[in-house]
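Key result, reporting period 2: structure in, sequence out.
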């Protein structure tokens, strides 16, 4: 994951330089504030930013996940899909149940570990989703079905349900 530094008289000018040099749209970049250099008597102030491409972060997370799972003793394949601008990492392994854990505890712990590592690396919160063999999707559908069933019961019986 490459971090590129750009300087300009204003933050906007530095961002514009990053967009032109990296040939990326601004929404495809993660912009971090760098140092602000105060100007002297004959020097103007300069603003420094650090730009990271989102696709580099996406690749880095995938490589980190594969390496982490390998160190934990799992043979796994990681697939990345972007949904509404958020990368979704789906893990397919030889032992999905152990990776998911009871009620998804191990999956949540894995997400926390990866999230902490990425936040430390880029210095900013980066949103992504980790799923194991579409566990979260299936769980979401089950909850929707349960909610619909309970709503039908309440509509017919007129008795509140928690």
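The corresponding designed sequence is given below.
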């Amino acid at each position: 994951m490459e971090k590129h530094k750009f300087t300009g008289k204003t933050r906007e000018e530095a961002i514009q330089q990053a967009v032109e040099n990296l040939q990326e749209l601004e929404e495809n970049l993660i912009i971090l504030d760098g140092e602000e250099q105060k100007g002297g008597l004959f020097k103007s102030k300069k603003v420094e930013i650090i730009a990271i491409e989102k696709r580099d972060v996406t690749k880095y997370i995938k490589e980190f996940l594969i390496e982490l799972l390998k160190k934990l003793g799992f043979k796994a394949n990681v697939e990345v899909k972007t949904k509404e601008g958020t990368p979704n990492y789906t893990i397919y392994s030889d032992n999905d149940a152990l990776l998911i854990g009871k009620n998804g505890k191990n999956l949540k712990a894995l997400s926390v570990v990866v999230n902490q590592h990425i936040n430390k690396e880029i210095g900013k919160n980066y949103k992504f989703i980790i799923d194991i063999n579409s566990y979260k999707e299936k769980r979401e559908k089950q909850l929707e079905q349960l909610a619909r069933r309970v709503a039908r019961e309440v509509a017919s019986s007129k008795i509140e349900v928690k």
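Residues 135-157 form the longest helix (23 residues). The first strand starts at residue 4 and ends at 8. This case is discussed further under Risks and Mitigation.
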